[in-house]
Amino acid sequence: MTDTRLYRNGVLEAEGFPVEEVADRLADDVTVWVDLCGPSRSELAGLAHELGLHELAVEDAMQEHERPKCHIYDTHAFLTTYAVRLDQASGRLKTCEVDAFVTPKALVTVRADDHFDIRAVTDRWDGSAHLAGSGVGFLVHGLLDVVVDGHFDAVQALDEHIEELEDLVFSEQPSNRDVQKRALAMRRSLVTLRRVVLPMREVVNTLVRRDQAVVDATMAPYYQDVYDHVLRASEWTESLRDLVATIRDTQLNIQGNRLNLVMKKVTGWAAIIAIPTAVTGFYGQNVPYPGYDQPWGFWVSTTVMVVLSVGLYASFKRRDWL
Questions:
Q1: pLDDT tens digits, one per residue of 102-148
Q2: Fewer CB under 10 Å: which end of the chain, C or N?
Q3: Phi/psi at 319 (5° precision)
Q4: What are the residue boundaries of the structural domains of the chain, listed by start?
Q5: Residue 199, CA atoms < 13 Å, CB-side half-sphere
Q6: Strand runs (DSSP E) across 236-278, as ranges?
Q7: Are strands 93-102 and 2-8 parallel, antiparallel or unpaired?
């Protein structure tokens, strides 16, 4: 699957043309975008030969699970970013790698699959068409803006999930197993998100350097806005990681307190039950004792058991042991 666009003097002039025409069209003063979804090695190698892309960058684009980065070569820059999406049901974070070759006249995006909605990027470009005169810098900004907004949405969704987790921890009858599973899922998602978000600061900083000539004066404020969103997402992710750890510690403390309360009540009732046991055990001796074989002996022993048990219960209740 391939998408193409061509801008001339800040105006969208053509789209959907074959990749084989890219090199010929770049001969003019235009800006071209090419999107390759699931390309074969030969397809990417052919385009790389036409655009003069470095072989190491091409190799990185064909391999998955590269860290987010921005490498600068003689003729182009190479970006690796990750779009993210949170599964609301399970709380697990799903990632999609998006690579990009940034040349003076062209932007080439490479995706392993269609999990990343590239239409969101083209809609972002169409929504800010007045900036298209900035060329490749305009295209790269639209791509990064969509990716970083996805990071921010994922952090916000995780924050809402963690608030629900807090409510579960302090509920009257918490499901400890459910809380543990959800807390573990949140922690895994935040670790994944942290690996994706934190390196984006370096990516954006590298692009905005003046010696790269990617960002002009018009686009500089917009890149600064993207950088601010990256910082906010990074700081938010770090705070949520600490919050999940705090929730887990709080859950363990609450469990310990509830166990202590249960043990205290069980011990109190055991002490109360021990009184009738002691009295009946005493009167169960096979030797004569006061009241032996007499009705009043039964009533005395019963009265002693009742009085002592009630007194002990009242004493424990007063001390909040029961």
A1: 998 999 999 988 888 899 999 999 999 899 988 999 999 999 999 99
A2: N
A3: -90, 5
A4: 2-255, 263-318
A5: 14
A6: none
A7: unpaired
